[in-house]
Fold:
Amino acid sequence: MGPHRIITIDGPAGAGKSTVGRLLAQSLGYLYLDSGAFYRAVAWAAARRGLDLADAQALTQFLQGFAPEVSADAQGFHLWLDGDEITRELRGPQVSRDASRVAVLPGVRRWVKGRLRALARDRGVVAEGRDQGSVVFPEAGYKFYLDADLETRARRRLKDWQRDGDPPALTEIMRQLAARDRQDESRGEAPLTVPPGAARIDTTNLSVEEVVQQCLARIRAH
Structure:
């Protein structure tokens, strides 16, 4: 797992991590890893089994036998469980809220970290999330932290959710994102922070292509 074959992209929800990560991975021929998809998969699968998402012991036991398969292509990061793709089921607002609940549990975070590091063992990866450059891959050769103002991030999230159903109002999404920011930044286990050595990019007024080009320019410069 050479450090220069690992690129991390961290930042809050709606900053553009997923789209930038996917396009950057395509440009480099690397595997794109969406860490948030694993948290959503844990929340979705545990809820389907009727587990209490606040019960750390029950979730830790559940994770011992939970082994979704992964793939990535031009459309994004995909998760499969028992031969069925579950990616679409993980996109809704309720699953996102449930994912934020399980993401604060140390046992869940350790499980996700192990899965991500295993996937990066023998290949180049672009891993995006909230603790990739600080906790999961602190040795990464290239680290980026994407951010944007709250309203811009909320409008992006609204656009995503409109594809899959009836989303909340923009003001409610802004409230949810602000609450998630506070939770992520203050949690005791792997809080959201700018990783040491990360290049910080404000995406508020940038197109996706401009952000990708900034990332590629920094990588190629080294």
The beta strands are 6-10, 31-34, 69-73, 76-81, 84-85, 125-129, 142-147, 199-202. The first helix runs from residue 17 to 28. The chain has one domain: 3-213. The mean pLDDT is 93.
